[in-house]
Design goal:
The chain is an alpha/beta fold. The protein is about 35% helix and about 20% strand. The strands form two sheets. Strands 3-2-1-6-7-9-8 form a seven-stranded mixed β-sheet, with helices on both faces. A two-stranded antiparallel ribbon has the order 4-5. The longest helix is centred in the C-terminal third of the chain and has 17 residues.
Length: about 325
């Protein structure tokens, strides 16, 4: 199957490993994980030694431009950053205050996403950014990939002056809008930086200072930016997979239907690829889960599946007996 159906991810700030949203993905994968803390980079290389064909660990920092970069390592190494952290979060007071003590300073040679992509002949499909304040800088160093190839971005964003002189959510959002992306969601459940113990742990509380934001390229550009029908199908399936992995099943179904109805793409061209199988299985599991919700029409949902994939979904006994759909 063509390399077009291999999903390429650049992860800036890869500490501890693949982001949880990517762990369930079973399509063909090339995951490039950047980690500036060389101690952690070596640990990750050992952790993913059995997946060297899929996961590449790069012991380097990403930035807006190539060149020297100073990175401060904190006692809580996950907080390490090239930015200066302002002491405004109540989460790092009292018992946790020592977590943000600087214990080491690294002098590194940073590179950019565009530089790395050019050197390795990459077309980057997805970006995941979590570098404690320098996410906007890293995007600036990847504008060529953002304009031409990137389909979605997950980035940590700030809503307060957490990092001295660094852009907040609004600036990053304006950049993404200017490049044809829309905001899919904020990975925030109403539980912010708690100020004291007077909270209902099952409700909303605290101050929203930071969370992950997720953007997706506007759908017309997904189709228009592909040089061939096969490339367009690959892009559609990648976006659908990303949506299924990021709590946006309705958006996944929307682009799959647009691919069939508006773009007249035959997704069967990708059958046999791991990417197609992942989306196929994800949609069938989604439809099966909806059968328990009021107001759902099983027949309508099965008809939609047939329209998208040009085959029948497995139902009832067939679904439960399928080792692919119900492996455990």
């Amino acid at each position: 199957m063509s390399d077009a159906f291999t999903t390429t991810v650049v992860d800036a700030g890869g500490r501890y490993g693949l982001h949880p949203t990517w762990k369930p993905f079973s399509g063909a994968l090339k995951y490039h994980m950047f980690e500036a803390d060389l101690q952690e980079a070596r640990r990750l290389q050992d952790k993913y030694a059995h997946r060297r064909d899929e996961v590449t660990i790069v012991g380097s920092a990403l930035a807006a431009t190539p060149g020297p970069l100073t990175v401060n390592i904190f006692a809580n190494r996950a907080m390490s950053s090239a930015a200066v952290r302002n002491p405004i979060s109540a989460l790092f007071l009292e018992e946790r205050r020592p977590e943000v003590d600087i214990i080491e300073t690294l002098e590194l040679e940073a590179i950019t996403i565009d530089q790395y992509a050019q050197e390795h002949s990459l077309s980057v499909d997805f970006l995941k950014l979590d570098t404690e304040g320098t996410e906007y800088d890293i995007l600036q160093g990847g504008l060529n990939q953002l304009r031409r190839h990137v389909l979605a971005v997950r980035s940590e964003v700030s809503f307060d002056n957490i990092f001295e002189g660094k852009p907040q959510f609004g600036t990053i959002h304006e950049l993404m809008l200017a490049h044809g992306f829309f905001l899919l969601n904020l990975d925030y459940n109403g539980r912010g930086d708690y100020q004291n113990s007077f909270v209902n742990a099952n409700g909303r509380y605290g101050i929203l200072t930071a969370c992950d934001a997720v953007w997706i390229r506007g759908f017309p550009a997904v189709f228009d930016g592909a040089p061939t029908p096969a490339a367009a199908i690959a892009r559609v399936l990648k976006v659908a997979a990303f949506c299924l992995l990021n709590d946006a099943s309705d958006v996944a179904m929307d682009i799959l239907l647009k691919a069939r109805r508006a773009a007249n793409l035959d997704l069967a061209m990708a059958e046999g690829s791991r990417l197609h199988q992942f989306v196929d299985v994800g949609v069938q599991k989604l439809i099966y889960s909806l059968k328990w919700q009021p107001g759902q029409s099983l027949q309508y949902n099965y008809n939609i599946y047939r329209e998208i994939f040009n085959k029948n979904a497995k139902t009832v006994n067939e679904f439960m007996e399928s080792l692919l759909l119900n492996p455990d």
